[in-house]
């Protein structure tokens, strides 16, 4: 019976292919699975299966594994691939039953036994298909992720290959080809740990496209701001993750991504304190200047506040606190006094003491600018 059917393999492969294309939607797409390719696969699998019945050959799942890998590469759903196998097995079994009627020596008991065996073989083949499909899918996912990571790195560094433009890279990364965009940089608490877990999926749910890279010290991302509420949605999602985050200004050309990354990192470096927070580069240009030139900012502190910093600890702390509240109050001594819970005259006395120690008059706008910048630098720079 099996030997007789093997003589009809070309015909069986053709019919099996037509049946599968009629019953499984994704298999009907000629551009996805060419007819000739599917017919070859059907013949190979049927040949191995009939060899089992004709000569008692050991089951060979090699063709099933090859099919599983191929369908994964073609992007055919696993459910459709298994459905196609079931259709093929059903047709083959019906042909075996029909062939058995031409052979009186084949008993009903043998047919029942054959039925049991062929569906056991179906289970074995299906397992082989599924295992090979999943293995190939995992490999393809790793390859796609590696490609995606390399393209993202190329955008962030500006090191795209000659054959790939920034816009082609954006298309492959699922980003719009036109801005505005923003770059995000977040501090990594521990190597390998994401400070912004699930951020790409969270933004995608609101229609905001982005791509991310995890580095040893930072997680960086390129975010599309084309969506009307993209900036608001992004900032809300970033704040929810309780990380230290810097955000670049908006920019329109992907060629400016490396510069935007620098701005995002400067914003992150200028974030005061040690706790979580999100700061945008444009929120405090002074902070960005301090972060961009820490050595120069340290020198500014030394020149502008050096004499004050040399005072005994108690007086130094008192005067720095007063100067800080005076700036926060817009230069209004009475308001600074309320913040400090002291009399306004006390604030005025301390301000005169600051002028005396630093040699800078608080009525002079240039002196005030120097002192304000130095005071800010003192707060944000490492001790």
TrEMBL record:
List the InterPro entries.
CdaR-like_regulators, CdaR_GGDEF, PucR_C-HTH_dom, PucR_C-HTH_sf, RsbRD_N_dom
Occurrences of domain PucR C-terminal helix-turn-helix (ranges): 319-376
Task: Tell me the ranges covered by the CdaR GGDEF-like domain, including all copies.
Answer: 166-268
Which species expresses this protein natively?
Answer: Streptomyces yokosukanensis
Gene3D superfamilies with a match to the protein in the record: PucR C-terminal helix-turn-helix domain (1.10.10.2840)
Q: Under which name does UniProt file this protein?
A: Transcriptional regulator, Fis family protein
| Membrane spanning stretches | none
RsbT co-antagonist protein RsbRD N-terminal domain span:
10-148
Return the similarity comment: Belongs to the CdaR family.
* Entries under PANTHER family matching the protein: CARBOHYDRATE DIACID REGULATOR (PTHR33744), DNA-BINDING TRANSCRIPTIONAL ACTIVATOR ADER (PTHR33744:SF1)
């Amino acid at each position: 019976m099996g030997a007789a059917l093997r003589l009809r393999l070309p015909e069986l492969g053709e019919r099996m292919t037509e049946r599968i294309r009629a019953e499984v939607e994704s298999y009907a797409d000629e551009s996805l699975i060419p007819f000739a390719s599917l017919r070859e696969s059907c013949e190979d699998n049927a040949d191995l299966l009939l060899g089992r019945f004709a000569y008692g050959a050991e089951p060979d799942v090699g063709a099933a594994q090859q099919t599983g890998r191929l369908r994964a590469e073609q992007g055919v759903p696993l459910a459709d691939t298994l459905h196609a196998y079931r259709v093929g097995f059903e047709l083959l079994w019906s042909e075996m039953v029909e062939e058995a009627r031409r052979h009186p020596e084949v008993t009903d008991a043998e047919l029942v036994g054959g039925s049991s065996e062929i569906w056991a073989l179906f289970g074995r083949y299906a397992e082989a298909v599924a295992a090979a499909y999943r293995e190939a899918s995992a490999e393809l996912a790793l390859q796609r992720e590696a490609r995606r990571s390399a393209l993202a790195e190329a955008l962030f560094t500006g090191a795209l290959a000659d054959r790939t433009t920034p816009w082609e890279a954006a298309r492959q990364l699922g980003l719009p080809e036109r801005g505005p965009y923003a770059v995000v940089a977040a501090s990594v608490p521990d190597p390998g740990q994401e400070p912004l877990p699930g951020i790409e999926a969270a933004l995608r749910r609101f229609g905001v496209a982005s791509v991310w890279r995890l580095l040893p010290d930072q997680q960086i991302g390129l975010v599309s701001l084309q969506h009307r509420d993209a900036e608001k949605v992004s900032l809300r999602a970033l704040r929810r993750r309780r990380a230290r985050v810097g955000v670049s200004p908006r920019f329109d050309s992907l060629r400016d991504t490396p510069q935007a990354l620098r701005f995002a990192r400067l914003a992150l470096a200028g974030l005061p304190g040690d706790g979580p927070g999100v700061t945008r580069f444009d929120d405090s240009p002074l902070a960005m200047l301090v972060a961009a030139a820490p050595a120069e900012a340290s020198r500014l502190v030394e020149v502008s506040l050096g004499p004050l910093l040399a005072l005994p600890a108690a007086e130094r702390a008192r005067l720095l606190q007063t100067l800080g509240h005076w700036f926060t109050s817009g230069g209004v001594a009475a308001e600074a006094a309320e913040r400090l819970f002291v009399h306004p005259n006390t604030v005025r006395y301390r301000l005169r003491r600051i002028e005396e120690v630093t040699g800078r008059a608080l009525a002079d706008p240039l002196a005030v600018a120097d002192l304000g910048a130095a005071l800010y630098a003192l707060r944000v720079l490492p001790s």
